[in-house]
Design a protein that fits this description.
globular; 64% helix
Length: 107
């Protein structure tokens, strides 16, 4: 009998229950990220929690810019950037441009 060799486990930065589709939707629609964070705050893994908080922060920045009316084009650029970050999370990358500001809050 030939024994099969076990494959070594590959460690990933994502946990098994992280759903990149929900994170992508959270980046596109910040209000959904806020709702997901409130509902699942206790059960989220660090990866998901960080990216939901980052999506909420970008959404709030865009929202405040829209309220000032003058910065609407800048708010649109911030929204496009959040979609780009959501796409990176969806494809398995881990972008953290607001790491210094969000890390302590997300933990």
């Amino acid at each position: 009998m030939v024994k099969k060799k076990d494959k070594p486990e590959v460690k990933s930065s994502k946990k098994e229950d992280d759903n990149p589709v929900l994170l992508l939707i959270g980046y596109i629609f910040g209000l959904i990220a806020l709702i997901l964070y409130i509902i699942k705050k206790d059960t989220l893994k660090e990866f998901s929690k960080y990216h939901l908080v980052q999506a909420i922060a970008l959404w709030l920045i865009s929202f405040v810019m829209v309220l000032t009316f003058i910065l609407i084009p800048v708010a649109f650029i911030v929204w496009l950037y959040s979609i780009y970050l959501g796409y990176q999370v969806y494809t398995g990358k881990d972008p953290r441009p607001l790491k210094n500001y969000i890390s302590n809050f997300a933990k």
